[in-house]
Design goal:
The chain contains 19 helices and 17 strands. It is of the alpha+beta class. The strands form 6 sheets. Strands 4-3-2-7-6-8 form a 6-stranded antiparallel beta sheet. Strand 6 and strand 7 form a beta hairpin.
């Protein structure tokens, strides 16, 4: 079918409406511009500048849009009726002629050029409007019933006067900027948008997943996880909540689809939530007076707490000299040289401990071979911070087959040493002039508490035999040591029953505790 035949077929239908507003130079070399409209009733306007002319042209085109009735579903595409470039495609030397086919709903579109010299409003099909790069859809006609035949406008107005009154036709006199609508819709397509799909845990959330609430929850969780990854500082409480929500959502998703992989992903999310929650508790700690008050611990991670327990256990099993004073001294010396077996010591470090005869005690360590000094014990006790005495503990030195008994890093050792020094040198313990056994008990209890400071695993208490062995005292002496810690505001609610010590650390010393897993 030729273009002429196609165009002539429009005589039996309503041809789409169209008009154009232009901005042209009014005189050569001047700033004046002329705004003209293709409608005969719209008189040209002379304006002082291009910017003013464009503003007037936009106002004029909007006034036409407001006065015009909406697009008519039975209208013939004006773009095709006027034989536009889309419908007349000359074939090149290597190009086959492809006839253009109109399609889609009838729309009212506005097309403009890139330089802002003209604006064209036209009633055409959605496909022709979408093919114009600068086209903006103002309105879309409702779909006509399949059985409805095209009705001429004159016939409809004669038999149904209300049709003509339903909305104004193109107004020839609508040129007043006062009638400008607030905005022109910027939609480029009359086709409905597909629902947005989401992604979570490297999985695409199907756009047709039901129930809809589940799909929205999965999409929101994906956005929240991606936003969390952009955070400057981690928030383990928030991360645990996200993993808990993910576990619940993936469980429902698995029930809906029957996908075993989704169920396994839900189980992994539950484990991740529990791990993040536990890590948050270990990192912050909870005050015994309430969950809203957070304790800032001297040793901040569960790894540090395990290293502290391993050092105390190592000293308990590898000390050659008996007695609580010897054990306390061995703890401090081990912390000074834990990684390489070598460290530095000054006289003040020894004199700050509750030792009755420090010279004799250090001499016994040296005689047993557990400790090695480059000089005499007197020189060690007289050494000052500017010239410390190097010490060596051979049993801690790495061997030919690997490292020594401890595997933590160089930055961890001074943290552990500082923690033990804070516990042993606690101000109230020094004021009460407590002995070495009491300081050892304070160390032993600090690594055997729950997050909120209750003694023993789960707050069920600590075995008395374990404490007496650690403090190197007789069973009958332990009760007096507990009383001293209570007076020094270290313990509260302390009680011994059924061979266990129960109670809790006071809020004052809770930052020095190392909670059990």
């Amino acid at each position: 079918m030729t273009v002429e035949a196609t165009a002539s077929g429009a005589e039996d239908r309503l041809v789409g409406r169209e008009w154009m507003v232009r901005v042209d130079a009014a005189d050569r070399g001047g700033a004046m511009v002329r705004v003209s409209c293709s409608r005969p009733a719209c008189a040209p306007q002379l304006l002082p500048s291009t910017a003013v002319g464009r503003a007037a042209a936009v106002a004029h085109i909007k006034a036409h849009l407001q006065a015009a009735a909406g697009p008519r579903p039975e209208a013939f595409c004006v773009c095709k009726a006027e034989e536009c470039r889309l419908h007349i495609r000359p074939a090149g030397p290597r190009e086959r002629t492809a006839p253009w086919r109109c399609g889609g709903a009838v729309v009212l579109a506005v097309v403009t050029d890139r330089q802002g010299r003209w604006w064209r409003a036209m009633e055409c099909c959605a496909r022709c409007a979408a093919a114009q790069p600068s086209a903006k859809i103002v309105a879309t006609a409702a779909a006509a019933p399949p059985s409805a035949a095209p009705v001429p406008v004159a016939h409809a107005a004669a038999h149904h006067p209300g049709v003509a009154a339903a909305g104004p036709q193109f107004s020839h006199a609508a040129s007043s900027p006062a009638a400008v609508p607030q905005r022109v819709p910027a939609s480029r397509s009359a086709r409905p948008r597909r629902p947005r799909h989401g992604k979570i845990a490297q999985r695409i959330v199907p756009h047709d997943l039901h129930p809809v609430a589940l799909r929205e929850e999965l999409m929101q969780l994906g956005d929240l996880f991606r936003a969390y990854q952009q955070r400057a500082e981690p928030d383990l409480a928030e991360l645990a909540e996200l993993h808990a929500r993910k576990a619940k959502a993936f469980t429902t998703w698995a029930e809906v689809t029957g996908d075993t992989g989704l169920r396994l992903e839900a189980e992994r999310a539950e484990q991740a939530a529990a791990a993040a929650r536990l890590q948050h508790q270990h990192r912050t700690g909870l005050s015994p007076v309430g969950e809203d008050q957070v304790t800032s611990r001297l040793l901040t991670t569960s790894t540090h707490w395990e290293h502290a327990r391993s050092i105390l256990a190592h000293v308990a099993g590898h000390i050659p000299v008996p007695g609580p004073e010897a054990r306390l001294m061995a703890v401090m010396l081990t912390l000074r040289s834990a990684l390489t077996g070598t460290g530095n010591l000054v006289g003040q470090d020894v004199r700050g401990l509750p030792l009755t005869e420090p010279e004799e005690l250090i001499g016994r360590f040296v005689e047993s071979g557990w400790l090695s000094l480059p000089g005499t014990v007197e020189e060690l006790l007289a050494s000052r911070p500017e010239s410390p005495t190097p010490i060596t503990i051979p049993s801690l030195m790495p061997g030919d087959d690997g490292p020594g008994p401890f595997d933590f890093g160089r930055k961890t050792r001074p943290k552990l040493s500082g923690w033990a020094q804070r516990v042993v040198g606690d101000k109230k313990l020094r004021k009460k002039k407590t002995g070495a056994a009491t300081r050892l008990l304070a160390l032993g209890l600090a690594v055997r508490t729950t997050t909120d400071g209750r003694l023993g695993p789960g707050g069920e208490g600590v075995d008395l035999a374990v404490l007496t062995s650690w403090c190197a005292v007789e069973p009958g002496e332990l009760e007096a040591l507990v009383e001293q810690l209570t007076v020094a505001d270290w313990l509260e609610e302390a009680a011994t029953a059924d061979g266990r010590l129960t109670g809790r650390l006071t809020e004052r010393v809770l930052p020095l505790s190392c909670p059990l897993p």
